[in-house]
Amino acid sequence: MTIELVPEWMAGLEEEDVTFIKRFILASGSLKDIARQYEVTYPTVRLRLDRLIQKIEMEEEKGPEPYVDFIKKLALDDKLDFETAKLIINEYRKEQENG
After folding, report:
1. Predicted confidence band at 72 (pLDDT cuts at 50, 70, 90)?
2. Which of 15, 37, 60, 79 sits a CA distance of 20 to 30 A from 54?
3. How far apart are CA 25 and CA 41, in angstroms?
4. R_g of the chain computed on alpha carbons
């Protein structure tokens, strides 16, 4: 059986995220094994997994606000800190309400 469609949540991920998921599955979900493979600490792998979960959840809940989704993605990709992202999103939504 061949999978012909890639789920939307997966299509939005970067190649390194997909590689991480593959390694995670092949390691039977052992974060300790993944930490050894990447030669990093367990908390580092846990943080990466948490961020990946956030990315997937964000892809699943994409709404009618592409700009807000873009700002969230920047924050998840460490290109913008979360507090700044919140401020930008709040200002954007205020502007939309006053519009």
Report:
1. confident
2. 37
3. 19
4. 16
54: CB partners within 8 A, 6+ apart: 76
Given a contact cutoff of 8 angstroms between Cβ atoms, the answer to whether 27 and 37 are in contact is yes
- More reliable by pLDDT, 33 or 82: 33
Identity of the residue numbered 16: E
What is the spatial distance between Cα 64 and Cα 34, in angstroms, rounded to a whole number? 36
Contacts of 44 (CB under 8 A, 6+ apart): 35, 38
- pLDDT digit string, tens, across residues 41-71: 999 999 999 989 988 887 777 667 888 888 8
Q: Where would I find the H helices in 1-99? A: 8-11, 15-26, 31-38, 42-60, 66-76, 82-98
Residue 88 is predicted with a pLDDT of 92
Total residue length of the chain: 99
